[in-house]
Amino acid sequence: MHRREHLPVRRAAALRLAAALVAAWWGAVGCGDDAGSGGAGATSSSTQSTAAGQPTTSTTSATSTTSASSGSTTSSSASSTGTGGGPIGCLTDLSAGHHEVTCDGGIQYDVEIPDGCTQEACGLVMDLHGYTMTGDAEDENTGMRALGQANGYVIVQPTAPSDNLGFPSWDQATHAPLVHAFLTEIAAGLPIDSTRVHAMGFSQGGGMTFRLLCDHADFFASGAPIGALQGCPFAGQSTPSEEVDILHVHGHTDNIVSFGGVAVPQRDAALAAWPFGPPEIVEQDAEHTATRRTTASGTVYEFWEHDYATSAVVAFVGLGGHCVPGGEDFDGFPAGYSCEDQGTFVFGELAMAFFQAHPKR
User: Fold this and answer.
1) Which structural domain, as residue segments, surrounds residue 9?
2) What residues contact residue 239 under an 8 Å CB cut-off, 6+ apart?
3) Residues 45, 333, 124: CA angle, nearest 5 degrees
4) Helix (H) or strand (E) holding 354
5) H or E segment at 18?
6) pLDDT digit string (tens) for 121-136?
7) pLDDT of residue 82
8) How high is the pLDDT of residue 88?
């Protein structure tokens, strides 16, 4: 009887916790109308991450960050790449291998440097996770560390500071300038090919990807957002300073970031900003369609829409198509974010092939 009396109390507490998580979730990934806000639960830049996978080394960068109001760009970022001048700022060890370090704003970075990239020019990829995830979880979905090793790209996978529920959460206005500043340090410290610098990301990280392209089109050759919230209005002063190649992936049945409410308007805004020609089908089957549009100058916008899904549930909300095709993240907490369908295209491989095919012209 005693246990029965307390059951409603426990159930109410569980429901309150679930409601709080849902509120933070929708604040973080459901309010893509504001490209400068990470929504409810976003932390200040001074918060230290408490997510799994703490770094083995922890240093704080004294370097100043760049201003990144939507649409602003700086030519100094592009000119700083490719020097290979040695360690700059936060990451003091630029030897080949895997490095973990926590820098400005409490952002933890996992950096994978292939053997040849300390002496010869390599590409550089920033791969950004979604809400509740970490850099390690992002790699389970994209496999970019192995792909970078195989193809000559340095891979940077940061983990955002945690929100008040203990989950890593990106705030675009606060964190996009910080991760861009870190990337410029890597690009200056290693012999990075400035024509092969790219950004990619899932969910919140996809919104961050759009934001980085919007603010620093001179720095990035291309971007690959997937399941992304909005991050670049592509209007007025909030338009990239130059055309940039984009690979945009989104699921039709995404229950977190709406396909029709977020992905389509973001795609259409980008297509309206530059003089794209008519769409051509790249590939198509019963579960996905990929179309490509190209400008007269050769800039490409590929849109991959799919019906793949996951059965994962977060706080009573099924993710559905809010997942990464071809990933191996099925047991993560509070959920795995890889699509469970068999025979999907592999997003990480698709992104790497896109980056290789689209250096900066």
Assistant:
1) 2-357
2) 71, 214, 232, 233, 273
3) 55
4) helix 347-357
5) helix 2-29
6) 999 999 999 999 999 9
7) 57
8) 83
Q: H helices within 39-168, ranges in order?
A: 75-79, 135-142, 144-151
> Closest Cα to residue 292, out of 221, 360, 300?
300
pTM metric for this prediction: 0.82
Return the residue matching tokens 């952002």: 107
Total of domains in the chain: 1
Residues making up the chain, counted from first to last: 361
Phi, psi dihedrals of residue 207, rounded to the nearest 5°:
-65, -40
Helix (H, G, I), strand (E, B) or coil at 49: coil
Tell whether the torsion through CA atoms of 247, 136, 179 and 156 is positive or negative: negative
Return the CATH number at 245: 3.40.50.1820
Which residues, in sequence order, are bridge partners of residue 247? 302
> Whole-angstrom Cα distance, residue 38 to residue 314?
19
**Is the C-alpha dihedral spanning 118, 244, 349, 92 positive or negative?**
positive
Task: Indicate the SS3 state at residue 45.
Answer: coil
